[in-house]
Design brief:
Chain lengths: 370, 370
């Protein structure tokens, strides 16, 4: 066994994870920019808890609430300028995956005034990013514990991630109570995203040692959560903690192991049809699990031991995955797959059996027809 | 569930963990002090691998080989002066737990010339410690992945730990091959130490979330390893990796959860009789496990599920624990227990049922009579 581990983020999980440990913000500086989307930070109660804590700690703050879903480079760049304008010493991101990912980019832009929006992908700049603190309000992304930020290029509409030691939060707070105000649709999509992280990461060759442990914890927690969501129209309150617990462990898995082909293929569904990220990845799970059974039969057997019979797993995922109008023509599928012509993404090679550009086109053309 | 996680160390585990990842030393600086004991660094082959890698990387080095078992404050202080004299930018500790723990203290002394030996316990000094890199040669301590350093006061002979964010290595390398040259006696004692970490940490109330996962991995690996050691007079080569794997996961457990009463009581056996640390802790396992069964019956049941019947576990530990001449009189036991008069250590309160000074004296008076 060969394994390695790196996670410089201090993270807290559980009820009152933020309110009980807000003092850990104090060393980050005396002034911060709070970064949010439009709704969840306030609706969850996290924003009020944060401003109360900052006031108590004597930390001044401004709020930038202009981060949307699938955060745009331009929005992150503007927030970076806002952070500089208010003299922020650190960025406090409060929200779901989009806001948390954005916070990492904002911290880089804030510290590097001459960095143009797209140039963040060059991964070369002078000043280290501002420290980042994160408060999660969805159970899905795992961004709280990863060194990854997925951003969307304004011009092409394409999602692309940055990652590295400069993309870790200094401190993250994961209080399941803040996820309780998430509507059912977002709860389902983010749970599917977390499940995709756990499963795609689990099936990579590098998933061993501690990361295998994380996957073995995340997979049953999330699968049981998905089954419970499939069984009732509401979101039982008791589900919030295990879903978030599973999502964080799934984040620990992908942070070391990365994801498989459902993720880059899912990006296409999000770009083309606006399908939410988690659901977009889940759309490719039937194809992914079929290849796992074919090319990694032992690992697949252990996976279905942790979940259910293959048909039942696929049925559960399908029952939660709405793909209205999704239907690529073979020509459209081939055109999308052409983006992987020059460089097969590591998500493809990390998937059992690998995946060629042609196979990706076939899978794209097949999605929505099941 | 409430949990928190902090581990700023990048660590590598597996065959060639150091040789394949030695480049991660380069950012630490252009000159280092290699810290070793008398034998294991050279005998394991790690020292040669290290000097080869440093030479290749253009990192100059001096060697300080004056660290003994249960490292003395004075030796660490002297090594700190040696590090300053050679202009070291970082400390590279190569050895077992004593050397790895010492490296953390040396890094503090090196950066703070006016810090007197004993004053390291005050935990107040001006300059941050030099970065520390560690190469382990025993499977026991877990120091590779903890923010703890256990030091021995020259004047009193007492062991006392320091811990905190300044006691983490920047990078650690855990190659089981380097543990292969350990004689059987050290292998047994260090495996008992690792087992003590896993078990004592498991039985603390804070062992939940990821730390429970770590304990659940460490306990069966180490118990099966101890059974294999009990069954044969040699150390099968195939045992090296699971023992080190278990020891690292046990380190992750104690780093978050701490240890129970066998550790401070074990220190007394080491001070008074020179019993090696792991064996000294294991001497109190029959008493510890009896209290776990009494005060934490559910957790104890799960523990024996992971290992064996209670009598068999105790028999295995006893068969590996040599306590020649250990026999405290009631007066001696009471005198030692008096050290806990003013402040009951958290290791006592963290143990199922807690432990009073009087109970500690009884357990001390009973050890060696089983």
């Amino acid at each position: 066994m060969q394994t390695q581990f790196f996670l410089p983020t201090r993270w807290f999980f559980g009820e009152n994870a933020f309110t009980a440990h807000a003092d850990t913000l104090a060393p980050l500086g005396g002034r911060c920019l709070i970064l949010t989307g439009k709704h969840s930070a306030a609706r969850s109660g996290a924003l009020t808890d944060a401003t109360d804590a900052l006031t108590r700690l004597g930390i001044a703050f401004d709020v930038f609430d202009g981060i949307g879903a699938n955060p745009l480079l331009s929005a992150c760049h503007a927030a970076g300028a806002a952070a500089r304008a208010c003299g922020a010493h650190f960025i406090l991101g409060i929200g779901g995956g989009s806001v948390l990912d954005a916070a990492k980019a904002v911290a880089i832009y804030a510290a590097n005034p001459t960095l143009a929006p797209f140039d963040i992908y060059l991964r070369v700049y002078d000043a280290p990013p501002l420290p980042v603190a994160l408060i999660g309000t969805t159970a899905g992304t795992g961004s709280e514990v990863t060194g990854v930020s997925v951003l969307t290029n304004d011009e092409t509409g394409r999602k692309k991630s940055i990652s590295g030691p400069d993309c870790y939060a200094a401190v993250s707070f994961c209080d399941p109570r803040y996820t309780a105000s998430m509507p059912r649709g977002i709860t389902v999509s983010t749970a599917l995203d977390a499940f995709a992280h756990a499963v795609e990461g689990y099936f990579t060759k590098t998933c061993d040692g501690v990361h295998l442990l994380f996957a073995q914890r995340a997979i049953p927690l999330l699968y049981q959560g998905l089954c419970a969501l499939a069984a009732c129209g509401d979101v039982p309150e008791a589900l919030r903690e295990p879903l978030y617990d599973g999502a964080i462990h799934a984040g620990l898995v992908i942070n070391a192991c990365g994801t498989g082909f459902p993720h880059p293929l899912g990006y296409v569904l999000t770009e083309h049809y606006g399908i939410p990220h988690g659901m977009a990845c889940a759309a490719f799970f039937p194809a992914f699990l079929a290849r796992c059974r074919q090319f990694a039969p032992e690992k697949a057997a252990a996976f279905f031991e942790m979940t259910d019979e293959p048909d039942a797993v696929v049925a559960t995922i399908r029952s939660l995955t709405a793909l209205p109008g999704v239907r690529f023509s073979p020509a459209e599928a081939a055109a999308y797959a052409a983006r992987w012509k020059d460089a097969i993404p590591k998500n493809f090679t990390a998937s059992p059996g690998g995946l060629t550009q042609e196979e990706a086109a076939e899978i794209l053309a097949d999605v929505g027809r099941g």
